[in-house]
Amino acid sequence: MTGEIDPGALAMLRRLIGHGPLTRPELGTALGLSRASTSPIVNDLVRRGLVAEVSTAPRGGRGRPVALLDLDDENFAVAGLEIGSERVLAGVYTLRGRLLLRNERTVEFDAANPRGLLRHAAAALHEALDTVGQEGRRLLGVGVSVGGLVDATSGTIKYAPILGWRDVALRAGVAEAFGGGVPVLLDNDANFAALAEQRQRRRDGLAATSLVYLSGTYGISAGIITGERLWRGERGLAGEVGHLIVDPDGRACVCGRRGCLDTRASMSAIIAVGLERATAKRRAGVEPDGVAEGVDRLVALAQAGDDGVVDALREAGTWLGRGAALVAAILDPRVVVLGGHYARLAPWMTEPAREAFRTALLMPASDYDELEVSGLDAWAPVEGAALAALISMAEGVQALP
């Protein structure tokens, strides 16, 4: 069923995405609707296959089971795709975020041939969706994640250093490669990962009204949640915190300046310095084939007690904490979350990062955990991209099914 979209139905979907499951009275109260107004909207969404009634144990452990409303997990799917220089990742999820399938492809990257990489990406997604299609689900949308400066409104990569791309109309390219059958949206990896982190925190019963997610994949980007919503800035380019200057007389950066946070705490910088300082040179080996392999080597060396690597990771953690404090001073979030590969290196980086963070804050706060490590894995941008596709539908960008 398509046509004019009921604003009440969209508001209900958004509430369930962010805060479900809920009872009918809780849902109506949250939206300012009477019971008489709530029921027709709920019934319409149930008929469309978007909302379902689920039973749960009695609240407080007594009485009858409680009937709750939540997103229907049986009829539809949303997909996320991450395009990188080393690999493309595709994931398919139910409306409640349950993973249905993941697919990963290693790619031979050619910066001069975006279409070649898009073909790999489309193939990875098709392989995932073919399996899901056997369950009879309908795909509602695809989110595409890329590291770099992204104009989400036009679907254009303004600048992706890891890919060597400038002004690439990626959303149109993915839609074409995918056949144009479903809506496609585009954003950077930190923004999508922040959405996934926000949902996970809500599920864990933690505050999620404001947070900053620092990506640890290629360069350092920030996904910013404020007022419970993703904030992209006036031109959609907010969050490029890797180019905050933390060491004015420091190392040269790819942006042409010196002392950017990226030069001290990005994954490429951490890997280069860590392997250079490795005590066990023969174990460090030749230059790693990409970020993931480089992090694998650092983890192995640090776990083996290599003093040079451990010291390099602690030093990088200190710089990261200083950079995170700058971000916190500007945005004053509830929490700064270290994600991506930072989570893998957390055993060696977190303590010095927190110490530097607390020292650098103008007014250290004591009423919340200031710097945390994400519980999500490296697939967070993919999960968040799929979630963004669902949110886009609930914001009325496309007709409801």
Automatic annotation (TrEMBL):
Residues 8-62 form the HTH marR-type domain. Pfam families: MarR_2 (PF12802), ROK (PF00480). Coiled coil: none annotated. It comes from the Bacteria. PANTHER family: BIFUNCTIONAL UDP-N-ACETYLGLUCOSAMINE 2-EPIMERASE_N-ACETYLMANNOSAMINE KINASE, ROK (REPRESSOR, ORF, KINASE) FAMILY. Belongs to the ROK (NagC/XylR) family. This is ROK family protein.
